[in-house]
Amino acid sequence: MNNSIIPTFTPMMFDPNAINEETNKTLKQLFKGKMNGSFLIKIKSSVICELGINFLEYYHIHFDSARLVTGSDETPEYDICRIIFGIHRHHSIFLTKEEIRSNEKSEAYQNQLIEETIEKIKLRQCGSAFYRKKQLLVGDEFLYFPVPYELFVMCMKSIVLLSNSSNWLAINYGDIVNIALSALTLMENNFLSNAYPLCRGMIELYIKTLILQKHPEAEEAYSEFCRFEIEQSCCSQKYPDKFNKLYNQRKYQLSKSKVDYLHYGWLDSIVTYDSTTNSRYSIYGIFDYLMRESNDAQSDTLDDIKCLYKMCHGYTHGSAIHVKYPLLQYFEVSMMLYYVLRNIFPEICNASNIDLSNDDPNIMKILDRDFDILKNQYNIRSTENFDLYYELSNTQ
Predict the structure, then answer these.
(1) Is the pLDDT of residue 154 over 80?
(2) pTM exceeding the 0.85 threshold for the entire prediction
């Protein structure tokens, strides 16, 4: 017998304490420079202890030849540490080094971090179970921050609920969710600038959907103009004869752009749509109309979406690509996705007769909670705060 092919076993292979010690040492090394290693291991150990036997419900650890061949095996402790890191970083944005250290020493904060980590683990089958193990561009792992994480979960749940629906509203919602998921995937790999054009398209589709919900009588005209767009842009490159006839009869004759009318001419079928300025056949005309017709809270949200929509122009047209502070893009992309997904998700659930009020964790409640923190951070943004964040990110 050739003894050289007999594997050599060491005592460590069968010593749980030694294996755990080596695992923790490796995890500390992986997160070195990002987070206090001892604090990370303490929280990770507490999370696993708190989960107990339920740990196996969220991390399916068993021999599976397909997972072995494809390299898709679970990496539970690494995943848990990435979740902890994302939540801790979320709570530490714009804090001083002393404030971060004070939190890490606080028993109340430690318990909060453990609780929120377990929340994310309970959602991971629609969340981090789909994430990449390595980023394409190394940087902040924003998709592990609470708000993007919860938005990703919302997208995955929505895809399942919409899979058996075929009406125009479900199709629009499905397109919105797919665009949002694409933007989150770009965020995962730090292609944040490329997420803005997607968010811009998502907002346009969402705003169109809002006015169509308010005026279902315009659905037929909307579908017809969609067909005009397809024929003009993908087939003949000429404006269809019927479109030309409608254009000549348009309600706002001062608008001379056939392209604008091609995209928004269907608005003429809404009798009460009375925007008579140059923005009549545009997304801004719809924004203005909806804001006039909404209550104060809805109008304020639409105004926020409108402001964020305008910020997309530079990225869409290539004039704003490189930015000094990716954290600013994290804020803006997250906000755009939140305002849209948070509004359509309850309607998707209602259409499927799904009641999420008793879910644990309740995805909508925890998303609202974490978004409030994000929005407050965004409101105090400044070059000084951004510099502080990145200075501390490199000295952990």
Answers:
(1) yes
(2) yes
